[in-house]
UniProtKB/TrEMBL annotation:
Gene source species: Geomonas anaerohicana
4-aspartylphosphate PTM sites in chain numbering: D56
PANTHER family: RESPONSE REGULATOR HSFA, TRANSCRIPTIONAL REGULATORY PROTEIN
Gene3D superfamilies linked to this entry: 1.10.8.60, 3.40.50.2300, Homeodomain-like, P-loop containing nucleotide triphosphate hydrolases
Alphabetical UniProt keywords: ATP-binding, DNA-binding, Nucleotide-binding, Phosphoprotein, Transcription, Transcription regulation
Short name of one Pfam family: AAA_lid_14
Record's protein name: Sigma-54-dependent Fis family transcriptional regulator
Domain Response regulatory: 6-121
Lineage of source species: Bacteria, Pseudomonadati, Thermodesulfobacteriota, Desulfuromonadia, Geobacterales
Coiled coil: none
Domain Sigma-54 factor interaction, first and last residues per copy: 151-379
Amino acid sequence: MLTQQHTLLVDDEPGILTEVSLLLASSDIPGVATISDSRQVLRYVREHRVSAVILDWVMPNVTGAEILQSLTVEHPEIPVIVMTAMGDVETAVTCMRQGAFDFLTKPVDPNRLVASVKKALQVSELGQQNRKLKDYLLADTLGNPDAFAGIITTSKKMRGIFQYIEAIASSRLPVLITGETGVGKELLARAVHDVSGVPGPFISLNAAGLDDFMFSDTLFGHKKGAFTGADSKRDGLISAAAGGTLFLDEIGDLNLASQIKLLRLLQEREYYRLGSDLLLKSDARIVAASNMDFAALRAAGTFRNDLYFRLCAHEFRVPPLRERLEEMEALVDYFVHQIAAQQGKPAPKVPETVIAALKQCRFPGNVRELYNMVHHAVTCNEGAPLSVADFPGVAAVPVRAAQPVDCGDNALFSLFGRFPTVMQVEEYLIAEAMKLTHGNQTQAAELLGLTRPTLNKRLKQERQ
Ligand SMILES: Nc1ncnc2c1ncn2[C@@H]1O[C@H](COP(=O)(O)OP(=O)(O)OP(=O)(O)O)[C@@H](O)[C@H]1O
């Protein structure tokens, strides 16, 4: 039977077992199991979920070398850290050749051991996620479909994101969600929380427009008397998110001073309330989102590299609506029924011509913009089927263009989910050039064969 994930420590000296397990426990590495009889190791590993093994090299009965050999064959996914008193180069080379993850000589430097175990657990976790992701992608099933029930989609790309979210569900590392405004980042952040099954709440904080004081006070709280007007103690949102998820929206807008505080929270999982010198711990998982281009922000020095790399332990980009037009019909249908029910009237029919016309729109505001358009159309509707005229600014598609064309396995068709319009290809090329050049407009303009001012103008138009 599989039990909880943990580290297995093997040494024939009970004193070392006690000493090392205490060191690991005090270094935030819980779940350490110990074995002093080397004959039991392989059976234990077969029956339990072991994430990493710390193995003594010289032991009576079965030696470390023999165990390492069996483990690398039977469980190549488990990193093995070898500890030995024989600090010679030859043993180290043998261990590493046999597939050891790391090699430490006794007496072991505690910092080096803790760092090595943390790294081994991280590698093990990433390996587990990769295997899960592969299984999911091959099986195309969701383990927890309820968590995604409110996210309407028929897009393969979105389905891939659902599977990625399930694969990283058990991880406590931060998640960074990027994508344009209104694509559904917050909905997906909630799904990350729901799928992870953590007992605590989902707490949301929008970082846009907060100066360092407001951010620190809202997130960390303050001590009574910390500043004029602080009449009583205030617990911050990080405290409210205990055991759950803290969602930091618009993280790309965070000012530099607050970025340093957030970095400390992510690195040490520790923080201070304003005006207090009492160090507090947090176990909340951080999920952050932004519609900004981090490559450009980092290049401009407005977003710290170290914070970015901490935040994106897991990362996914939510595609804009125009890259998943195949879900237009399902979304419109869902919104029409939802809005009509709220307004206590029957849901109007949505002819194919309306869907075809909507598919031609650029939707800079993505699903939120589509919702608003449908809301307007349903509100004004008196019971007749909706028509393109109910959607101000949307042009009807000429009937001939709406005729289905067999696109076969045309590459453009697979990329866009339909044959793209000239405008869509143009936007796609600009987005790709910006991505390839990490937001450098001069280089991107060169790639696109445009002048820099023309590219700049187009980018501004897209943002409007
Ligand atoms: N696939 C979807 N199914 C149903 N509703 C959706 C979907 N995607 C987005 N929405 C709705 O669209 C609106 C915008 O979604 P959300 O707030 O998650 O976007 P966002 O990417 O976080 O936007 P912003 O960057 O502006 O904060 C919400 O009302 C959400 O419920």
